[in-house]
Structures are given as C-alpha cells and as structure tokens.
Write a structure and sequence with these properties.
With 659 residues, the protein is an alpha+beta fold. The chain has three domains: 25-264, Immunoglobulin-like; 278-445, C8orf32 fold; 452-658, Jelly Rolls (Sandwich). Helix content is 19%, strand content 39%. The protein contains ten helices and 36 strands. An eight-stranded mixed β-sheet has the order 5-4-8-2-1-10-13-12. The longest helix is centred in the first third of the chain and has 26 residues, at 3-28. The N and C termini lie far apart (88 Å).
C-alpha cells in the first residue's frame, strides 16, 4: 500500500474515532440542571420518529464504601433525563423508586432532585417536584415505594431526575435496564465491586453494547485499601421495546443487566456462600420468620379444621372445603409477595392480605387437616422467567399451595374467588415452580388442566329478504369465563349484557340468559334469541351469507410480517362453532366453501372446517385448537400463515340461488 493511501486511511480512522469519542463523551457526562437548548427544541426522535417520548440519557453507577463502624455500604447513583414529545408521552413522568428494608436496617434515598424544564419566551423555565407531592407506600414487609409525578408537563418538556440510594444490603446489587418502552438515546451503567465480593453478571436482550469494559482499579475509599473490579456498559440509540400480543413479561426480552451475589469473604474470615443453591435458599426460607415460621401456626385455623373434618368424608373433600373456605373468606389486596405482611392470626381475623398471607394460611389449614401440603415458589408472568440454573430468590415473587393426595398433586391458589380449585390464575402459568422442601427442593410444572375454550352453537333461519332470526348458546370455560364472572361482580350483570350487545354489532338480542354465573366449576353459558337484517346480502335472485354470519373471530392478531418476541398463549386454546341454517323455501345452494383441515407442525394446533347441505338445511362445523403454548420468533411465519388461512376460511360465503 502506498504511503499516501496509508496516511489517508489513518486520518479517516482518527477523525472517526474523534467523532465517536466526542459524542460518547458528551452523552455520558450529562450534568444535572445543565439543559441543552437543543433538547428543548427537539421535536422528534431521530431513530424512532413515532415515539411519544425518549430518554435523552440514563446514567447510573454502583460502588462500595467502607468504614470501621458500618462495614461495607453500597451506593447507587442515578441521573435520568427524558424528552416529552406528545401528551401520550406524559406517562414517562410517573415514577416510583423501590427501597428494601428489614426489621433492623433499611435503604435510604438522598440527594433527591427532580425538575421539569419548559421553553417559555425563548428562555428555560424550571419547575421543581415539591416534597409534598412525593408519596411513600409499603408494598410488602420488605419493600417500600416512593412515588411522584413531574409537574408542569407540556408537549416539548424535558424532565430530569437525580437521586442516591445508600444500602446496607450488598446482596441486592441493583440491576440495570438499557431498554425502555420508549427509545433511549444513551444508557450507561458503571459498577465497582470490591475484590472481596463475587457476583455473576447476566445479560438479557438482543441489543449489542457500544461499550462493555472490565478493569481493575484501586478503591478510592480512605478507610480501606483494596481493589475494585470495574465494569462499564453503555448502549446508544436503543429502540423502544413495544408491546405485542401474547407476551408474558416484556422484561424477559428487555436489554438489561443483572448481578447475583454468590459469595463474599473478608481478610481473616472464611468464605460466606450466598445463593449457592436452591436447596440453601429453601432452607433459609423455611427458617424465615415471615415464611417458614408462619407454617407452624396451626392454632390459627384449628376451629375451622375441626368443622371441616366433621363435614368431609375423604381427603379430597377436605382439600376442596379448605380451599373454598379460604378463597371465599379472604380478600386479596392484589399484591404478590413471597412473605407474609403480618402474623397469620391477624390476617385470618382481618380477612384480607397479600398472596403469601392467603396461600400460606391455606397451607397451614391443609396441614391442620392432616393433608400433605407444601409451599411452591414461582414467578408470575408479569414478573419474568425463572432461570433454574441460576439460584436467585429475587426471581420469585409469589407462593402457592401444593397438596398431595394418593400421589396426585393439586396446585392451589386461593387469591381469586371466581376460579375453581382445578385451575390456577392465569398469571401463575409461567414455566415451573419450586416446591420448598427441607434439604432438597423439587420443581413442578405449573400448568395442569388450565384452558381457554368457547363453543358457539346457533340455529338460524334465513328469509328471502335476507333477514336472519334464531337462537344461540355461547358456552365458555377457563379464563374467558373467569373474566366474564369478574366483570359481572365488578360492574354488574347488566353491564356485561350491554357489552355483549355492543360486541355483537348489528344484531338485536332478546331473551338473554346466563347459566352457571356463580359456579366456576361449570362452563358459563350465555343464551339469547337474535335477529339481523344486514348480514345476508340479497342481489336479484341470489343471497350471499358469511359462513359464520359474522359471528366468528373477525380480527387477526398476527398481521405483522415479522416478530421479534415469542408468542405465548399461556394455555391451550379451543374454539368451536356449530351453526345450522334453515334456507328459505324456493332457494337452493349455488355454492359452498370447500371443507378444509389445516395443521401446525408437530401437532401444535389444527383447524377443521366442514360444511354440508341436506334438503333446506346447511350445517357448518368449525374447530380451532392450539395445544402448543409457546411459539418462538422462528416459528412466527408458520403461525401467522395458519391464522391467516383460518381467517380467510371464516370470511368465505354461502351462496344461495332462487329456483
């Protein structure tokens, strides 16, 4: 290569490095209160023009201080700056800071500063978040949330937040999310870990790091002399992670970093193992005052157990009666927790509590009845997946009850009143749960008999003018039935009927009835008479009618060509349509859609469509079944094509001709 060419390439490389370094330097050195006028005049995100808001910078750091009195204390600093483009972006101004505490120690917030900046008359106007608008609430026995909303919001506002958390709990090194549900221009996290601590680092998501550096540096602490393992991670121009249908927890796919403490040691002391195994975690739980100790409080439910024992004849009857009593007595406060919020005697008396309060009380009652019962730890769908190969209790947020009768296992969750004992709440269906046993844990599949199914059975009569009259029964089981029951309890039966009429647009409904509304063990059946004059189209001596009279599924949720996230149905799906049409006298069938059978690979699902005419009757039978609950992005195209064909088949026409 000629010297001139080499010199030219060297200059280009130097200029490129300088540009990148200058941009990186300017972004990672954001200072609180020093707002760039360009940020206030910015009208859209350059790499996501449809965004309602964007993170201009999110910079965090964690390090350890040491003094002879307190020992090691963990410090977490954060500065975040956000641009609001539209009113839909105002939600980015709602904030919550979570703090951990126990009976002896707690995390504290200091150096809290929050501001809203607006451009007024060509100048920057600043509005502070006032102390009286900051609220604190207890989430459970160990977590406290500090909540606030930025004031003076406008389209074009910039909001900024800075705070420091001082924590004695070095087992809880804070993780970091580089990706939000709005785009992120720059995100950076630096962690300085003393050489005495061993943390493993786990990376999630798909966005590559711009910086991912590790180094060894002296700790700047004056009271001790030791080295820090320094890790610096940064990403720029991170796209928003937007919601898609059938996703469990967006956190499963968010680009983020998590740290798990495995051991620590100090000079002159032996190594202390932490999160070394699930067995060790289970043993610690069984010794915990707010978990294992509560399982020994059988006296709390002794009288109830006597009543159940006197009425029940078999262990299965005891289990069902115990479940029904706790489910109907207790009101869930809609908080998931691994730990009780108070003593179980008080929980039982007050008739309300978090998920651990209710389900540990259920376990205690089962034990008092002489049934083998154990707690099962799990992570709800919104909380994220549990990595079984990585023991870490924070991955769990909920506890349910396992009862074993004659080698048959029953998973029970008494937090929701309108589900039968045979079904777990939908949020519980998230892989496997850990059975908390002394000495040795075991894992159990959380999905047993759960399902979502519906059957539409219709008898319809068609007139020469195109009017359709008849009757329909709509049978629903599983979570769709639970949702309707919840709606009727929350809003009233009449409100549900209004919604039903609204969803069946164009149909006139009369004689509506509901069966099994108060019996979750049975399918919920909605019956009604119906009439419509617009769906069947009359053209001369021809009548055209949709095969399911527009009463089938009309929206395809898989229209996008590509998908980056898995499709998780949660449980098997089944839809059945049985329609019988009486065609008008003097008309005959001109054409019918073809019968078809569609299959997903590996018996993951199927669709059967059958139609036949006999005399003046046309019978339609369509069945959709999806037995596989999780489809990876690589399977999406096959799944999308399957549902596209299903929707196309259900959109076809029956054609009648006047003889």
């Amino acid at each position: 290569m000629k010297k001139t060419q080499l010199l030219f390439l060297t200059i280009i490389a130097f200029l490129f490095t300088a540009i990148v370094s200058e941009e990186t330097f300017s972004q990672e050195n954001i200072s609180f209160g020093k707002i760039d006028m360009n940020d206030l005049t910015l009208t859209k995100c350059s790499f996501d023009t449809a965004a309602d808001a964007m993170v201009l910078g999110d910079i965090g750091s964690t390090w350890f201080e040491y003094d002879a009195r307190e020992g090691f204390v963990m410090i977490f600093d954060r500065l975040v700056r956000i641009k609001i483009f539209t009113k839909n972006g105002y939600s980015a101004a709602n904030w919550s800071i979570s703090l951990y505490h126990n009976d002896q120690e707690k995390e504290t917030v200091s150096a809290f500063k929050a501001r809203t900046y607006n451009l007024e008359g060509g100048k920057i106007a600043e509005t502070k978040v006032k102390d009286e608008s900051v609220f604190t609430e207890e989430e459970d026995s160990y977590h406290q949330n500090t909540r606030f909303t930025f004031p003076a919001l406008k389209e074009g506002s910039v909001i900024e937040l800075k705070y420091t958390i001082r924590s004695p709990f070095f087992r809880n090194l804070r993780d970091w999310s580089f990706q939000w549900q709005i785009p992120v221009k720059w995100s950076q996290y630096e962690v300085r870990i003393p050489e005495y601590f061993h943390y493993s680092r786990h990376t999630f998501g798909f966005i590559p790091f711009l910086r991912n550096e590790e180094s060894l540096a002296p700790n700047p602490n004056n009271d001790a002399s030791f080295n820090d393992n320094v890790q610096l991670m940064a990403i720029k121009d991170v796209p928003a992670l937007r919601e898609e249908p059938y996703v469990t927890c967006m956190g499963n796919y968010t680009t983020r970093m998590e740290f798990v403490l495995h051991s620590y040691w100090f000079p002159g002391h032996s190594v202390v193992e932490v999160n070394s195994s699930w067995d060790k975690i289970a043993d610690d739980l069984l010794k915990d005052e707010d978990f294992g100790s509560q399982l020994k409080k059988g006296k709390v439910v002794a009288d109830l157990a006597l009543t159940i024992n006197a009425a029940a004849k078999t262990p299965a009857e005891k289990m069902q009666m115990a479940f029904g009593n706790i489910r109907n007595r207790m009101k869930w406060n809609e908080h998931y927790s691994k730990y009780t919020s108070k003593k179980l005697s008080r929980v039982f008396e007050e008739k309300s509590g978090n998920s651990a309060d209710i389900n540990l009380l259920l376990i205690v009652l089962m034990k008092e009845l002489g049934l083998k019962s154990d707690p099962v730890m799990l992570s709800t769908r919104e909380h994220g997946l549990v990595m079984e190969q990585n023991p870490f209790l924070s991955h769990m947020n909920h506890v349910i009850c396992l009862v074993t009768i004659d080698s048959v296992q029953y998973l029970l969750d008494a937090t929701q009143r309108l589900l039968p004992y045979t079904m777990l709440p939908f949020q519980d269906l998230n892989g496997r749960g850990m059975v908390v046993l002394p000495g040795k844990v075991s894992w159990i599949n959380l999905m047993k008999n759960e399902k979502n199914s519906k059957l539409l059975y219709a008898t319809l009569k068609l007139t020469p003018s195109g009017e359709i009259t008849g009757s329909m029964k709509f049978s629903q089981a599983g979570y769709v039935a639970r949702d309707i029951r919840n709606s009727c309890v929350r809003e009233g039966r009449d409100e549900y009927l209004k919604t039903l009429k609204k969803n069946l647009k164009g149909w006139e409904l009369t004689d509506i009835s509901l069966e099994n509304l108060d019996n979750p063990l049975e399918s919920l059946i909605t019956g009604f008479s119906l009439q419509n004059s617009d769906i069947a189209q009359v053209n001369g001596n021809m009548i055209y009618l949709n095969v399911l009279a527009n009463l089938g599924q009309t929206v395809n949720e898989f229209v996008q060509e590509k998908r980056t996230l898995p499709v998780d149905f949660g449980c098997p799906l089944k839809e059945s349509y049985v329609f019988n049409y009486e065609i008008p006298e003097g008309f005959s069938v001109e054409s019918l859609p073809e019968n078809v059978r569609l299959l997903l690979p590996d018996q993951a699902g199927s669709y059967k469509f059958m139609i036949q005419a006999a005399g003046n009757t046309i019978s339609v039978n369509a069945q959709l079944s999806v037995s596989k609950t999780l489809f990876l992005p690589g399977d999406y195209e096959v799944l999308r094509n399957f549902f596209t064909q299903v929707m196309a088949k259900q959109s076809q026409q029956i054609v009648l001709k006047k003889s």
